[in-house]
Amino acid sequence: MNLHELEQAYPHRPLSFNAEDSDALHHCWNDMVATGMYSRFYRNAHWRFEPMVTTDNAIGILAFKIPQRMMIDISFVHLLGAMADQCASVIERLELSRDLEAKRISEEREKLRSMLLSSVSHDLKTPLASIIGSLSVYHGMYESLSPERRLQLTETALDEAQRLDSFISNILDMTRIESGQIRLKEEFLNPLSICDNVRKRLKQRLRKHQVVIHPVDEEYEVEADPVLTEQVLQNLLDNAAKYSPEGTVIDVKSGVEDGAFFLSVCDHGKGIPEEMMPKIFDKYERLNHSDTKVAGTGLGLAISKAIMDAQGGSIHLANAPDGGAVFTLRFTNWRQASAQNNIKEST
């Protein structure tokens, strides 16, 4: 910062500044020495100016208005200089801390960008290669293929196309969330009906698992955005299928507990390692078991958490006692479907 920038930043100088005070101020800044009263320069000024000097340059000036009749000794003058040095030291540390934080954020952003590009390039190319391969065989060898083989090829292409669509949707959703463009259209809806719709839509991807939606004694409705809530449930069911063995059951349970409506998606996989628990909802975090290779961008759970937070709800993770992960959605605004005007809210 030069003196002109300093004057622009602090335009309201004291009315008692005279010409000599201004000259003393400029001299202090340019030469980084004390000027004005009780100094070697501009001793007739009405102010004393102490430069705040860091390792690199001057960052500011402390101006002291000393009454003419006040008798001071050399120790007081040294105290003024020490105050300026102390202020400069504090400001320098703050600026250093700010610069280090900015550097850390920049490096982290670059790291995340590289991770995302690497993940996206791999996870987009993999289903595309499968789609192209399946359709190429279907097209080039149609006459010689059995009906069962044709069906298998089309199912593979459809499955991979749906997975590709999910990848792209997650990336677009996270972009909307980070830019603040997410818009809620909340209404009362039946969460189990939404879950059943997702199960039907993901039938191809869930075909190797049995999704059981357990009924409840009472029918409940929650206040939420239907499209975004469907996206959350899609991410949870998709994750449960990816991280649990083929042929296992995925349980969907719900009810009212501690003043909130909950819906849990429980798989029978290996669960989540304890060290992963605190960061499982972070962007680009992916669970990698040594014997399991799962494609994905690592955005699904981060998006789910952001959506639930925006709706005033929450999402929680726990490991089931008998193995597997349990993701639980909690909705604070709910009602019994048979008593639509009796809206329950947690306190």
Give descriptors for this structure.
alpha+beta, single chain, Helix Hairpins, Heat Shock Protein 90, disordered C terminus, 7 helices, 19% strand, 4-stranded antiparallel sheet, 347 residues, 5-stranded mixed sheet
Helix-strand category: alpha+beta
Radius of gyration based on Cα positions: 33 Å
Unreliable segments of 5+ consecutive residues? 339-347
Residue fraction in strands = 15-25%
Q: What is the CATH C level class of the largest domain, in words?
A: Alpha Beta
| Helical content class | 40-55%
Q: Look at the structure and give the mean pLDDT.
A: 82
Number of domains: 3
CA distance, first residue to last residue: 52 Å
Walk me through this protein's architecture:
This protein has helices spanning 3-9, 19-31, 74-140, 147-178, 191-201, 226-242, 300-310, and strands spanning 35-36, 47-53, 58-65, 187-189, 210-213, 220-224, 249-257, 260-266, 314-319, 325-331, 333-336, 343-345. Helices cover 46% and strands 19% of the residues. It has 347 residues and is α+β, with helices and mostly antiparallel strands. Residues 339-347 have low confidence and may be disordered. Helix 4 packs across helix 7 and helix 5 (191-201) packs across helix 6. A hairpin with a 4-residue loop joins strand 2 and strand 3.
